[in-house]
Amino acid sequence: MDTSELQRLKQRYNIVGNCDALNRALDVAKQVASTDLSVLIVGESGVGKEIIPRLIHDNSPRKHEKYFAINCGSIPEGTIDSELFGHEKGSFTGAIGESEGYFGTANKGTIFLDEVGELPMATQARLLRVLETGEYIRVGGQKIMKTNVRIVAATNVNMHKAISEGRFREDLYYRLNTIPIQMPPLRDRGNDILLLFSLFTMQIAEKYGMSRITLTDEAKAIMLRYKWPGNVRQLKNITEQMSVLSTTRVIDAETLSKFIPQDKESTQLATTTPTGSHSYESEREILYKILYELRGNVSDLRREMTNLRKQIDDNRTLDNFAAAQQVHALQPATFSPYQDVEAEEIRDGVTTSQNEQNESLNLSDIGRQVVEKALERNGGNRKKAAQELGISDRTLYRRIKQYGLDK
C-alpha cells in the first residue's frame, strides 16, 4: 500500500500515527480484506484493536452486509451460546420464542469477536465447527443450521499461555490465527504519543468550548518516557483530566506529575501518598485473582444447586410412586397402571401381601418393585425406564444400586 492510500485510510478511520508497526498492521488489514480468511488481532487493552475489523469489513466484498462487534468477555457464560448461535423456543427459562443469534443474523456479513480468549470451552467447540464447516446448532435444537460469516477476532490474552493452561483450544487458535495482526502498544509508538495528545486536546477544546492545553518540552519528554500501561485509552483519559482540571493551559513537568508519575517505569496513574513509594500492584493482582476465582466458585455453586434440586425432585417423584402404591394397597382392588407390582389383599383390616402376610409394605419395598417392574416393561433399558418414571437417568442408577438391582 502506497503512502497516499495509507493516509486516505487513516483519515477515513480517524487514525493518528506514523510508526512502522501501526502502518504494517493497517497494510495487512487492507490486503486481507478482499479474502474470507480468519484474522486474529493481538494487542494490549486500549491499543485500538477495534479499528481493524471495521476496516476489513468496509473494504471487503461483504461491506454492504451486516457487521456485528461482540465483546465475548461481557456476555455471561450461561447465555453466550444462545447469544451467538441462537436458541429454540422453550429451550430454557425465558426462551419465549426462537432466536437466530448473531451467526444467523449476520449471514453473509462479518462478526468481530473481541476478547475471544474469554470464551468458555464449550463455546469454543461450537465456534470451531462454524469456522471449519459453516454449521452450527441452536441451543435446544437439533437441526443443523448453515451460515456464511467472516470472523475477525481480537484478544489481549497471551494465547500460548492460555493453551498450555487448558483455557483455550489449540485447534481453534490456529483456525482463528490464519492471518495474525499485531497492534503495537502506545509506549512503542514514539512521537505518535504527542500526535494523539494533540488530537485529543483539540477534540476536548471543541467539545467543551475551552482553550487547548499544550506541553512544554520537558513535559513532552516525560510523556514519551512513560510506559502507558493503559495505552491510547489511558492517554485520552489523562488528556481530558488535564484539560478540565488544570488551571493553566501550558502544562509543564510539575503540573504533568500530578496526573502521571515521573518514574518512567511506574504503571500507576499518580502517586497515592505524599510520603513513601508504596505500590499497590501486588495487591491489585491478588484482588483480581480472588475475584476471578470467586466468579468460578459462584458458577460451580450454581451448577451444584441445579443438580441437587433436580435430584431432590427426582427422589420426590419416585417416592410419590411408592407412596401411591402403599395407599392403593389399603383400598379395595381397582385397576392400577402398576398392576405388575406384587398384588396385595385386605384381611380383617390388615394389609397383607401374597408373599408376606401380616407385614405392611414400606416405601422402600414398593419403590424397589416400581423400579423392577419399570425395567421389566422396558426390557432392561434404563433410559426408557427413567423416562417412564419421570426421573433422571442418574437418579434411577442410584436407586438401582441402592436396591441392589445391579447385581
From TrEMBL:
Record organism: Leyella stercorea DSM 18206
Keywords recorded for this protein, A-Z: ATP-binding, Coiled coil, DNA-binding, Nucleotide-binding, Transcription, Transcription regulation
Coiled coil stretches, renumbered: 291-318
Ranges of residues in domain Sigma-54 factor interaction: 15-244
A single GO molecular function term of this UniProt record: sequence-specific DNA binding
InterPro entries: AAA+_ATPase, AAA_lid_NorR, Homeodomain-like_sf, HTH_Fis, P-loop_NTPase, Sigma_54_int, Sigma_54_int_dom_ATP-bd_1, Sigma_54_int_dom_ATP-bd_2
Protein name: Sigma-54 interaction domain protein
SUPFAM superfamilies registered for this protein in UniProt: Homeodomain-like, P-loop containing nucleoside triphosphate hydrolases
Any one of the GO BP annotations: regulation of DNA-templated transcription
